[in-house]
Design brief:
The structure is a single chain. The protein has three helices and no strands. By secondary structure, the protein is mostly helical.
């Protein structure tokens, strides 16, 4: 019974980690790309979307996405920067 409760709680821990990584990555991306950033909640979403984009795009061009907390932040930040650049190109058009 305890094992089921622990397994059931893992999704919550994973969600918190995604939010933390997304927040840090979104914040980093907003500092690197001028005029980027969408506030706290927007940066978290930006970082999570960036993580998905980088997780899909980087292996396609031959860059491994590795593991670990720091590498996850770097990967998500790269993806968030790409997302911000695409958004800025769309805004200009």
């Amino acid at each position: 019974m305890e094992e089921a409760a622990v397994e059931g709680g893992n999704w919550f821990v994973a969600l918190i980690i995604w939010i933390i990584i997304g927040g840090i990555a979104g914040w980093l991306a907003s500092k690197i790309v001028t005029g980027g950033g969408f506030g706290l909640a927007g940066n978290v979403v930006l970082g999570i979307v960036g993580a998905v984009v980088a997780g899909w795009l980087l292996p396609l061009i031959g860059i491994g996405t590795g593991g670990g907390f720091i590498w996850s932040i770097i990967t998500a930040a790269i993806g968030a920067i790409i997302v911000l650049l695409v958004i800025s190109l769309i805004k200009r058009a």
